[in-house]
Amino acid sequence: MHYKAYLVHLTAKIGNGQYTTELTLTTGTIVALAFGDVSVQVHRLVGFAKI
């Protein structure tokens, strides 16, 4: 059985109307800057799809 992992691409808009931070994740936990008590695991966002 083969699995294809998906990616989460995050951008942060910090000043001058431009995205200044970009991250591409396959694992880990994302914590909202504005709401520090809110977090989500990357695998819950993307899961895995059979190929």
Query: What oligomeric state do the depicted chains represent?
Result: single chain
Q: Which percent range fits the helix content?
A: under 10%
* Structural category: mainly beta
Our estimate of the beta-strand percent is over 45%
**Alpha carbon gap, first and last residue:** 8 Å
User: Main β-sheet, in a few words?
Assistant: 2 strands, antiparallel
Q: Give the strand order of the largest sheet, numbering strands 1, 2, ... along the chain.
A: 1-6
Characterize the overall form. Answer: flat
Number of strands: 6
How does this structure look, described?
The structure is a single chain. With 51 residues, this protein is mainly beta. It is built from one helix and six strands; from the N terminus they run βββββαβ. It has one helix at residues 42-46, and strands at 3-5, 8-13, 19-25, 29-31, 39-41, 48-50. The strands form three sheets. Strands 1-6 form a two-stranded antiparallel sheet. Strands 2-3 form a two-stranded antiparallel ribbon. It has a two-stranded antiparallel sheet with strand order 4-5. The protein is flat, with a radius of gyration of 14 Å. The termini are close together. The model has no long low-confidence stretch (mean pLDDT 79).
